[in-house]
Design a protein that fits this description.
The protein has 374 residues and is an all-alpha fold. The chain has one domain: A middle domain of Talin 1 (Up-down Bundle). The chain has 13 helices and two strands, in the order ααααβααααααααβα. The termini are far apart. Keywords: Membrane, Transmembrane, Transmembrane helix. InterPro entries: Alkaline_pH_Ca-Antiporter, NaCa_Exmemb.
Length: 374
């Protein structure tokens, strides 16, 4: 009975959130209703994480991480495009701000929290450097092609691509992302699987014979019907998350303007809301000592955020008014370069300590602080 009640909320919350989305769409909300919508948004996030973990348990890794990353990013892209179309020329930098925020949140925030969770428990976090390194290299390439080069190109005025350059960046981004998915799921799937406990060694590691058994690892796989139901509810929850984030965005924009904060903060808040499911799922995986899954989620989300957003924006630019500003400023380029260097030093050994988690979290804190006070 308790188990059925626990399952009931994972069904009711996405449905209630979707109902709230339908009732609140296109309307100005008073403060009391805005708070209720925010609570349903949080509930939909938790439900999305639950259903993503059910699907992941059914299909196994790395497909489970891929499902959540792609599902969230596809709807995130729809949110960005819809906001840019409805916002006109004033939202020309929204895609850049949101995508860069997603990269910093995933590569520093989620990675830092995941490593912190594991290293506080076991002192050393072990993962597969081959697969994680390939993911990091793809993220760094996509970020440089899409967010750094527009600042230095000369065919268009300002930090923007010309139509031909934008088309090339879109095709290159989509091709790299597709190639990575094939590598992750077909040709080198073993590079992205959690490191077996028997293979871990080092200070603070517990031997396989003395290790605590994780009941979730040995729980029976969900049936195909259960997984399909969770897939449907996951999509409902994610649509509700992104839709309610858009409903709340005028309130967020008003609060940002009233506080005298830069407009880029709106993109940061949107990215934080949309990436909540991945963040919670990654921390849950780290608590189970499956840091590889956490890294798959983090870097996979960063990659999908760029690899799917840029092609979508390239197509949407046909209807968008005003310039599409993709190039980063000097401060953000320094943060991106430092993130790539630090992430490389974290990934190459295949083992991380509390020190690495602290460095990533400080970088994430620096990003948030400089977004508020540029």
């Amino acid at each position: 009975m308790i188990r059925n009640a626990a399952r009931l909320w994972t069904v009711l919350l996405p449905a209630l959130a979707l109902l709230a989305l339908g009732l609140s769409w296109g309307r100005e909300l008073p403060l009391a209703l805005a708070i209720i919508v925010a609570l349903l948004l949080a509930g939909a996030v938790l439900a999305a994480v639950h259903h993503a973990e059910v699907i992941a348990h059914r299909v196994g890794e790395p497909f489970g991480s891929l499902v959540l990353a792609v599902a969230v990013t596809v709807i995130e892209v729809a949110l960005i495009v819809s906001l840019m179309i409805s916002g006109g020329a004033q939202t020309g930098a929204l895609a850049r701000d949101t995508v860069f925020a997603a990269v910093m949140i995933t590569c520093n925030g989620i990675v830092g929290l995941s490593l912190l969770t594991v290293t506080l428990k076991r002192r050393i976090a072990a993962f597969n450097a081959e697969g994680t390194g390939k993911a990091l290299a793809t993220v760094a390439t996509l970020a440089t092609l899409s967010l750094v080069l527009p600042t230095f190109t000369t065919s268009a005025q300002g930090p923007a691509f010309s139509p031909a350059q934008l088309g090339f960046a879109a095709v290159a981004s989509l091709a790299l992302y597709a190639l990575f998915v094939v590598t992750q799921t077909v040709r080198h799937r073993d590079y992205f699987l959690p490191v077996p406990r028997e293979a871990r060694s080092g200070e603070g590691q517990v031997s396989a014979t003395n290790d605590t058994v994780d009941p979730e690892e040995h729980a029976p796989r969900p049936s195909g019907r259960t997984a399909l139901t969770s897939l449907g509810l996951l999509l409902v929850a994610l649509v509700s998350v992104v839709g309610l984030a858009k409903v709340e965005s005028p309130i967020i924009e008003g609060a940002v303007s009233s506080a005298g904060l830069p407009q880029a903060v709106v993109g940061v808040v949107i990215a934080l809301l949309v990436l909540l499911p991945e963040t919670i799922a990654a921390i849950n995986a780290a608590r189970r000592d499956q840091v590889q899954i956490s890294l798959n989620l983090a870097l996979g989300s960063a990659m999908a955020s760029i690899g799917l957003t840029i092609p979508a924006i390239a197509v949407a630019s046909i209807w968008l008014e005003g310039p599409l500003l993709l190039g980063l400023g000097g401060t953000h380029m320094v943060l991106l370069a430092l993130t790539v260097v630090v992430s490389t030093l974290t990934v190459v050994p295949g083992r991380a300590t509390l020190m690495q988690s602290g460095v990533h979290l400080v970088l994430f804190a620096a990003f948030l602080f400089l977004a508020i006070s540029p």
